[in-house]
Design goal:
Elements: E1 24-27, E2 30-33, H1 39-48, H2 55-64
Antiparallel strand pairs: 1-2
Helix pairs in contact: 1-2
Length: about 80
Protein backbone atom coordinates (compact mmCIF):
# COMPACT_ATOMS: atom_id res chain seq x y z
CA UNK A 1 0.00 0.00 0.00
CA UNK A 2 1.18 3.57 -0.69
CA UNK A 3 -0.08 6.92 0.47
CA UNK A 4 -1.81 9.21 -2.01
CA UNK A 5 -0.54 12.22 -0.05
CA UNK A 6 3.06 12.81 -1.08
CA UNK A 7 5.63 15.32 0.21
CA UNK A 8 6.43 16.52 -3.33
CA UNK A 9 5.28 15.92 -6.87
CA UNK A 10 7.45 13.76 -9.13
CA UNK A 11 9.99 15.62 -11.29
CA UNK A 12 8.30 16.95 -14.44
CA UNK A 13 4.74 16.79 -13.09
CA UNK A 14 2.30 19.24 -14.64
CA UNK A 15 0.26 21.27 -12.15
CA UNK A 16 -3.00 22.67 -13.47
CA UNK A 17 -4.48 23.94 -10.20
CA UNK A 18 -2.29 26.21 -8.04
CA UNK A 19 -2.29 25.60 -4.29
CA UNK A 20 -4.02 28.93 -3.64
CA UNK A 21 -7.12 27.66 -5.47
CA UNK A 22 -7.43 24.41 -3.49
CA UNK A 23 -10.13 24.78 -0.86
CA UNK A 24 -10.84 21.28 0.48
CA UNK A 25 -8.94 17.99 0.30
CA UNK A 26 -10.87 14.86 1.25
CA UNK A 27 -9.58 11.38 2.08
CA UNK A 28 -11.10 8.45 3.93
CA UNK A 29 -9.40 9.86 7.07
CA UNK A 30 -10.99 13.29 7.01
CA UNK A 31 -11.36 16.66 5.33
CA UNK A 32 -8.66 19.35 5.27
CA UNK A 33 -9.73 22.96 4.71
CA UNK A 34 -6.77 24.58 2.93
CA UNK A 35 -8.21 28.04 2.35
CA UNK A 36 -6.10 30.85 3.79
CA UNK A 37 -3.59 28.57 5.53
CA UNK A 38 0.16 29.05 5.71
CA UNK A 39 2.51 26.45 4.23
CA UNK A 40 3.08 24.66 7.55
CA UNK A 41 -0.67 24.77 8.34
CA UNK A 42 -1.35 23.16 4.95
CA UNK A 43 1.25 20.49 5.69
CA UNK A 44 -0.29 19.86 9.12
CA UNK A 45 -3.79 19.59 7.63
CA UNK A 46 -2.69 17.18 4.89
CA UNK A 47 -0.71 15.02 7.31
CA UNK A 48 -3.71 14.82 9.62
CA UNK A 49 -5.83 13.25 6.83
CA UNK A 50 -3.11 10.94 5.48
CA UNK A 51 -3.14 7.21 6.25
CA UNK A 52 -1.84 6.83 9.84
CA UNK A 53 0.99 4.55 8.70
CA UNK A 54 2.50 7.37 6.61
CA UNK A 55 2.10 10.38 8.90
CA UNK A 56 5.51 10.09 10.60
CA UNK A 57 7.21 9.79 7.21
CA UNK A 58 5.37 12.88 5.93
CA UNK A 59 6.41 14.86 9.03
CA UNK A 60 10.07 13.86 8.48
CA UNK A 61 9.90 14.96 4.83
CA UNK A 62 8.30 18.28 5.83
CA UNK A 63 11.12 18.79 8.38
CA UNK A 64 13.72 18.18 5.66
CA UNK A 65 12.04 20.83 3.47
CA UNK A 66 11.96 23.33 6.35
CA UNK A 67 8.15 23.38 6.41
CA UNK A 68 7.74 21.55 9.71
CA UNK A 69 9.24 22.78 12.95
CA UNK A 70 9.55 20.99 16.27
CA UNK A 71 6.77 23.25 17.59
CA UNK A 72 4.40 22.12 14.80
CA UNK A 73 1.89 19.53 15.82
CA UNK A 74 -0.64 17.35 14.01
CA UNK A 75 -4.11 17.60 15.54
CA UNK A 76 -6.10 14.43 15.09
Amino acid sequence: MTSTIKPTLPQGSIVTVPRQVTHLVVTEYGIANMKGKSTWQRAEALISIAHPDYRDELVKEAEKMGIWKKSSKVTM
